[in-house]
Every structure is written in structure tokens, then in C-alpha cells.
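Practice set, problem 2.
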Amino acid sequence: MSLGQQLAPHLPFLRRYGRALTGSQTHGDAYVRATLEAIVAAPDEFPRDVDPRLALYRMFQGIWNSTNLDQGGDEGGGDDAESIARARLARMTPMSRQALLLTAMEGFTPEDTAYLIETDADEVDELVAEALREIENQTRARVLIIEDEPIIAMDIETIVRDLGHEVTGVAVTRDEAVALAMEDRPGLVLADIQLADDSSGIDAVKDILGEFRVPVIFITAFPERLLTGERPEPTFLITKPFQRSTVKAAIAQALFFDETTVPAA
């Protein structure tokens, strides 16, 4: 099997990580492209002594660390949301954010994460704890949940409330989601893709974003369909079935890049 064939199944999830890390589909996907270009340009430098997925993320980390655009490079620097994010980075180091996303969202072990960010497993545990402390002190939001499966909706609602956020409503159809959003504007939307009446959570979100700006996290059992890099796609994505830690990390990152988020008291 060629190297390209080995890496292809992992690219959607690397896009998910890149988008979550940068808060942008455009910027995250650009890092993924740069990673692939680096592999094509110097295939002998691709790590062959570890699992291909781990090696792919290691190459991505090398690109990320070498450009360090997340802290004010020339990637559009004047944008308000990015300015807010850079200000928050002064209180949460980039490495702690990476450790949290790599473990909670991407599912790497502390040992694998240590390899990716070039530290040791004990330090990874400390970095994740640091990131979680910062999150708990940093953001509170009012959340609209769009989910037609009652058990999953209740699970998400419990997680959201336990994190200290307020739930403005739970919608099961596109029309209901839009109506709830217009009635009580949320500061964050968590949306399933397929809804009860065969309507689309994506269409519901498009309708909502047509009225006002709000960060969105999509929830889907088929993430590969929304992580192609070929069209406008979600920046933040949770894969079903999900872990509590995954939802927490995704919410934290979505709010991290949102300039309207109110810091916790």
C-alpha cells in the first residue's frame, strides 16, 4: 500500500484538528495542505517507525510549530475574532490547547500526545489540566441544541449545563431551531445534521447565520462527509458516539474564537 493510501483515511480527522486548533476552516485546511506538501517534497522525512496516523499528525505539528501563525502571523492579523483569540492565548499557552484537543477530540493517548508535542506523558496530563482550568475560568454561553434523538439531546443538555452554560432550548426540526434562535438568541449552537422531519441541521444553521453571527458545532455520525476540504464546511465537528471530554473541548474551542463570549466571574 502506498503512503498516500495509508494517509487518506486520516486526512478528514486531521482537518478537524486543524480547524479546531485555528478556529477556521480556511486556516486549518491550509495547515493540512502544507503538511501534505511537505511530505510530498521530502518523503524520506516522514516517520516510518510509528503508526501512519501518528506520523501524519507529527508532521502537522512540525508545520504548526514552524509557522506559529496562531500567535499573530500574517494569516489575516487584523480580524477581530483572531485578535480576541490571541489575547486569550496570553492566558492559555498554545501547547496546553494542543494537548487538550489531541487527547479529548482526536483520541490520542497521553503517550502518543507526548510524542506529537515533544514532551512526556506526565507533562501532557499537566497541560490538559491547565487547559481545563483556563476553560472553566474563561467562558460561559447560552446554548441552543438542535438534536432530534431524545436520549442524545438530554445527554448533550446535561453536559452543557454541567459545564456552567445555559441551554436556551432544544429543537428537533429545522423550523423549530430557527424559531427558537430568533426568539432567544443563543451564544452557541450545537447542531445534529439529520433532523426528525428529514430536514437538515445544516440548513437550520444557515438560516440562523443569515440573521446573526454565532459559533456552531456540528454533531454527526459521518464526519468524513463534512471534512473533505473541497467546499465550505464546519469549523467545529463532534463525531457520534461522543465522549463528554470531546464535547467540552469542542465547546471550549468554539467559544475561544468567539469575540462575544463573556468571561466567567
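Problem 2, part (b): a different protein.
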Amino acid sequence: MYPHYFERYKTDGVEFNMYIGQSITKEDSFDEIYLYNLRLWQLQTMCEMENIAFNERKNMDEELRVASLILVHSNPMAIKFRMDEKQFDVDGAYNIRYEIIKKRIDKANIKGTNERLTIPGKIAIVYSQDKDALEYIKYINFLQSRNQLGKIEFLELEDLQGVAGLKALRVEVIYQKDFNEKDTITFNDLIKEIEA
């Protein structure tokens, strides 16, 4: 796997950011296949986390469901490492738009309705460029062939304060009755799918 930066933190849920690109390492030259691999791995991992959370309900006093969301951002961005907080942060006015979108999309509604984008049992994938949707449809088709994902929806989102024109894919998670987190898709499976 190509070197990348992964950051996880807890708010009212669990959020993580991943940054990948040539400037993170001077050792290896960057190829987009590394980005595709990381994105497919992320979606696969989201399916696994959904299954773990779903199966853990039997051990809880109160039923708790999760709603999963992925924000796809394909444009290069400037990031800087803040030594005081020991984390990466976006840099520059244009890149701040990404942070604004990230903070607001979890409350987004589907255009023309009062229905929230994020609902239990489905993974929402928010994007602004059609090429990103086409890329993720390939990953979804692969995971559908593995019986991990089901029906897919193509949605437009209501305009948010300072953000307009976002679209989303929303795909059903197929929960496995005999889910075992050790039985996951291998790295070789991922590479075969990316190269196809």
C-alpha cells in the first residue's frame, strides 16, 4: 500500500480522514491506482464496520444503529501538518470549502424531501463530480458481486449553507448472519478489481 495519512477521531460519531499523494512521501512515485485501492478498501471496511455494529446490537441494552457516510473529494488540496496539535489540516481558502462540506453533509436532506441522506442500513457516498460516481459504482458492483451491498440509489442533495450542487449514491448494506471479520476480501482481490 502506498504511504498515506489516516486520522480518526470521535465526535458524536466516529470520523476519519485519509490523505494520499506524492507530497506525503518522496520515496515512491504516485499513481492513481493507489488512490483507487484506498477507496475500495475504505468502502469494504465500511461494510465490515456496518456488520460489526449490526451484530453487536444483541449485546446492547438499547438498540443502537449506525449511519455511514463517505465524502469523495478528488481535487488536489494543500495540507499542512500542525505541530501543536500533531495533525494534518487543509491549507488555503479554496480548500476550506472541503471542510465546510464535511461539517454539513451529515445533516443533508434529499432534494425536494425531508428525508435525511444518512439512514441506518445504507452507506451514503457524497460527490460533486460525475467521474467520482462512476468510479464508486465499480466498487459497489464488485461488493454487490460479493453479496455485501444491495440496491443503489442516485440522489441529489438539498443546497446547504454555502454548498450547492452535491449528489450522492446511497447503497444498501447486506448484513451477514454469519459475519466473521476475519473473512474479508484480500488485498489480491482488491488489486484484481482495480485492474479490471
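Answer key, part (b): Residues 26 and 98 are 25 Å apart (CA to CA). Residues 4-195 form one domain.
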